[in-house]
């Protein structure tokens, strides 16, 4: 009976120990599962955070590039606006000068033709010749100014190629003086060129 009791006690102890071990195993299993879940959640969180960071960095890069392009476009617009203002000012000044220059020979031409027309029958042949020479001179001056205006218009559109040659500068000066001679003579102004006749330049006329 005592031996049976001892065996029964041992069996009970083994059963309790087994239960304890089972509980320990279960606890370890639960702990392992918990660690796996925590690890998995951590990995997912890291992946999401990394993905968000990469997307944010990409967005920042795109944004920075867009800002740079906008700044570049703004700079180009400002430069274009500045260039347009200068071009408009130059154009206005040029047309003002052209209008003033055309006015004088045109007024002279208008006055001479009107004067000759009214008094045509009273003029001698020599007088008529002198007046017609003056009319022709005014017409030449107008034609020269209009040709200059067309040249300027072509140059603004980039239609004139740069073709430098050797030429005498005095010939150009004398041509310009002859254009202004009629107006100068009316005001008793004498235009003198100090350019030497033999002085040559290499340029586009």
Question: What is the rounded Rg?
Answer: 51 Å
DSSP strand tally: 2
Helix-strand sequence = HHEHE
**Strands of the largest sheet, in order across it?**
1-2
Count the DSSP helices.
3
Low-confidence stretches: none
- Can you tell me the overall shape? rod-shaped
Largest sheet: 2 strands, antiparallel
Question: In percent, how helical is the residue content?
Answer: over 70%
Mean pLDDT: 82
Distance between the termini: 141 Å
Proportion of residues in β-strands? under 5%
Which structural class do you get from the secondary structure elements?
A: mainly alpha
Can you characterise this structure?
There is one protein chain. By secondary structure, the chain is mainly alpha-helical. It has 3 helices and 2 strands; from the N terminus they run ααβαβ. It has helices at about 1-120, 125-155, 170-185; strands at about 165-170, 200-205. It has a two-stranded antiparallel ribbon with strand order 1-2.
Summarize the structure.
The protein has three helices and two strands; from the N terminus they run ααβαβ.
What topology does this entry show?
Blueprint: H1 2-118, H2 125-156, E1 165-168, H3 169-186, E2 200-203
Antiparallel strand pairs: 1-2
Which keywords apply here?
205 residues; two-stranded antiparallel sheet; 3 helices; 2 strands
């Amino acid at each position: 009976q005592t031996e049976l009791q001892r065996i029964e006690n041992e069996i009970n102890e083994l059963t309790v120990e087994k239960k304890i071990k089972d509980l320990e195993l279960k606890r370890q299993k639960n702990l392992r599962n918990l660690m796996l879940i925590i690890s998995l959640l951590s990995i997912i969180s890291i992946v999401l955070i990394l993905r968000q960071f990469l997307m944010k960095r990409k967005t920042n890069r795109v944004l920075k590039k867009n800002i740079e392009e906008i700044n570049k476009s703004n700079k180009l617009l400002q430069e274009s606006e500045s260039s347009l203002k200068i071009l408009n000012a130059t154009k206005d000044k040029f047309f003002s000068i052209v209008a003033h220059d055309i006015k004088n020979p045109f007024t002279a031409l208008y006055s001479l033709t009107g004067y000759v027309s009214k008094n045509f029958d009273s003029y001698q042949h020599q007088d008529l010749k002198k007046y017609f020479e003056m009319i022709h001179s005014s017409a030449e001056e107008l034609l020269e100014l209009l040709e200059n205006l067309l040249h300027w218009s072509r140059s603004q559109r980039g239609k004139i190629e740069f073709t430098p040659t050797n030429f005498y500068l005095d010939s150009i000066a004398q041509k310009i003086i002859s254009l202004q001679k009629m107006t100068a003579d009316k005001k008793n102004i004498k235009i003198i060129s100090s350019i030497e006749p033999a002085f040559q330049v290499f340029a586009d006329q």
